[in-house]
Design a protein that fits this description.
5-stranded antiparallel beta sheet; 4-stranded antiparallel beta sheet
Length: about 210
Amino acid sequence: MDVRVVVRAPGKATSVMGSKCIMTVAIVALVAAMGSSASADLWNGVEYDFVDVIDTWGFRGRDVVSITQNRPVSYEHDITGYDVPDHFWVTEAWLGLEFTNDGGDGHGSFWVFEWDRREFVSVGYQDGTWTEIGEVDNGQYDLLVDIDWLNDDGVLDVTLNVSNPLGTAAAELDRSVLYGNLVGHTPAPAAVLLGLLGLGTAGLKLRRWC
């Protein structure tokens, strides 16, 4: 037999069983909210480095890629594998370009002959911005990268162009390295949604006996 104890007060009646239900709903809702918050905070504040290296080129996997005047080379660095921008944002980033097989920087003329073996390199990005490196030799040149490009979709589009006054510039790129720092972040809309789902689930489960 179901026995219900009722404590009456002037002007209202409160069921002990009903009070337990209310308290249970509140506790479950709190746990659900804490769980959603913990899930959302999983990546929050975590910091570490990233690096993306391209050292083979084309479908044949060549060791170097040739860049000649009026024939630029385009490629992309993709760091979405680091959960950028879903769970991590880039705080600092650099692009390292390593050139090789430089044959010298001689230039001049004699009688009707002219020569120019210099190669002035410029780097273009996805928004149409160009950065001038200048004349390059063998070695790596590091450029600071605008992190907004990476935090947009995790991809950096790169175009390399070479030139000299005579129009005979040519360079060989050995590898391209994108590196920098990441920090975890919490997407607020997702955290709120998880909290609401947890509260709703708790309410549905307790409706049967409250």
